[in-house]
Amino acid sequence: MNERDSQTIGGLFQEKGFSLAQNAGESDVIVMNTCAVRQSAEEKVWSRLGKLAAESRGGKLPVIVLAGCMAQLPQTIERIKKRVPYVRVAVGPGHIDKIPQLVSQAVHDPSQKLLTAVSPGRAEAHRTGSTQMLPEALPRVKVSGVSAYVTIMYGCDNFCTYCIVPFVRGPQVSREPRFIVKEVQELVSQGFTEITLLGQNVNAYGLDPGNGYGFAQLLEDLDGIPGICRIRYFTSHPRDFTKTMVDSIRDSKHVCEHFHLPLQSGSNRILKLMHRGYTREEYRGLVSYIRSQIPGASVTTDIIVGFPGETDEDFQDTIGLVKDLRFDGAFTFIFSPRSGTAAAKMGNQVSRKDKSRRLQELVRVQNEITKDINMSLVGTIQETLIEEPDLKNPEHVRGRTRTNKLVVCTSKGPKPGDVVKVRIDEAGTWYLKGPMWKPNSD
Length: 442
Ligand code: SF4
Known about the structure:
The protein has helices spanning 2-15, 39-55, 69-72, 76-83, 99-108, 122-128, 165-169, 177-189, 215-223, 243-251, 268-274, 280-293, 312-325, 352-375, and strands at residues 29-34, 63-68, 87-91, 115-117, 147-151, 153-154, 173-174, 194-198, 230-234, 258-260, 298-305, 329-334, 381-389, 397-401, 406-409, 419-423, 426-427, 432-434. The chain is α/β, with parallel strands linked by helices. Helix 9 runs parallel beside helix 10 and helix 13 runs parallel beside helix 14 (352-375). The site of iron/sulfur cluster (SF4) has 10 residues, from helix 7.
């Protein structure tokens, strides 16, 4: 979502006559569009901000803008004033449209210390209605590549107990379908082959106006856009992923058969503490339904280890479910307490040592499964959308299957944007590899 928001920020500056600099050293303005989901991401930003001043070596600093979710955290503004007072502008994710104007103010009046545009607290946002900025009339900088992002909704109403997002991104607001359809039509006419729909919980799309037009309907409408090749979406919530949505994906031509379903934990006790709204049995039921309706679909997940109170028994419940469901891949995380969330205040925090041990075990188990599944694809033909030259061998190109597996194509000829068939000759944990396949080429 930040990448997509950054394209809007770039577009706004271009409208004002700015151009994109190739590196920080030649910039008049530096915007850091930040994430607050994990402590480590936040620390990297503070460290980078510190280095920017050092790199200027006493010369004139560009106007530095801290944008995105970090700016929305209550403690950030004070920390900027204390630690990096040369940051001139701080703007929450719901106010990025104000950045050029604030930068202009900062340039014209250097005596103004820190200019801010952040949303009121969550309770205030609910009282006064939405504080979300929607991108309908905002420009976006042109990007290269075969894939484009389209944000279909902002914010989240779920309050998973470990997550800071509902506090910094605000209440859920779905965009009107007609604007989404128009944006996708424009991107397709510009030559983008793949469209990825974005939202904190795309399956809840449309529940806020509650007019009966939901995610399944949106997918059906986008599927019918002439020229569209592939549709993906990110992120799903298993609680809100209905059978109707699965059916709609099954019946579509262009929605990819890849389901990323964040499990987070395989223990019912921990899922309850996380406030996830489903049980391991319900999650298993959803995966079974997907596999029964769309054979060959890939299913990936996110898992957090070391949530407060997680015992070895809870963790083994997760391992058991991972072995049972055999995910194609998993993003695995150590629980990161975020100040302001319910989980950060919970007792029974798990020790660093236990968290690391559990993560290592989970990664080992999942990697074996991933490799096993990939090896089972050797000898198959995979439809692959070529994205870019391969980093290791520029004579090869790389792309993705509809199931979102990385493919290295060893034939000369295919270029980004081409959809080709690849015969898989080799596979590892992270890739499939082989030459282009044509009928009668074997
Ligand atoms: S669904 Fe839960 S994890 Fe996802 S953004 Fe909302 S609160 Fe965070």
